[in-house]
């Protein structure tokens, strides 16, 4: 089985699913894996919940809802940095499912009927299941800005630093905005978030969630090395 770092290069958004069941055992493994993920802030309480939609009765609604047999929701305390922390966690879950042969799609504007559980609010939902088409894609096909547009190189970056930056570049983001820029030295990276082009709290939250996803890619690439 591939690991999470390897899954970065081939994962893509899956929007059409078969009716094939994700077994109860595998769903249990997905929820168990949530407890093993690393957090940016482990003082923020988080919870993962799976909604079964195999009978088309899951109470999940939103503008860009993808019809899928299952949905994974992440609930979190409303603390400073909670969206970034949630993105960091959720991408590890998404890559874990990719490695297990399961397709996924982030649903930025979709919410379950139960928006709050035990004082924690749902910050993101992910559709998942077995894909109707291809599960994997080749990383060169990912529509991302090239590194020379994302980075300012202050010093010559070695191969390990470039490996980490390539992983960061492949991170998915809300509406593919890629809201990150890097200043790179030989032994460190400074990360900057672009100002959101859209007003409102929801767009700010989506940007923060996307930044969390990207930081998880940096972490996974660094661990791989």
Provide structural commentary:
The chain is of the alpha+beta class and 225 residues long. The chain is 32% helix and 22% strand. The protein has 6 helices and 10 strands, in the order ααβββαββββαβαββα. It has helices at 4-8, 24-34, 82-99, 147-150, 159-169, 201-224; strands spanning 46-52, 60-62, 70-76, 103-107, 110-112, 116-117, 120-129, 151-153, 180-184, 189-193. The longest helix is centred in the last third of the chain and has 24 residues, at 201-224. The chain is globular and about 55 Å long. The mean pLDDT is 95.
What's this model, at a glance?
This protein has 6 helices and 10 strands; from the N terminus they run H-H-E-E-E-H-E-E-E-E-H-E-H-E-E-H. Helix 3 (82-99) packs across helix 6.
What is the oligomer described by this structure?
single chain
Can you write the helix and strand succession as a string? HHEEEHEEEEHEHEEH
Principal-axes geometry comes out as globular
Which segments are poorly predicted (pLDDT under 50) over 5 or more consecutive residues? Answer: none
Which band does the percent of strand residues land in?
15-25%
- Total strands: 10
Instruction: Please compute the radius of gyration using only Cα atoms.
Output: 17 Å
Tell me roughly what share of residues is in helical segments.
25-40%
Mean pLDDT across every amino acid position: 95
Kindly name the structural category.
alpha+beta
The total count of helices amounts to 6
User: What about the largest sheet?
Assistant: 5 strands, antiparallel
First-residue to last-residue Cα separation:
18 Å
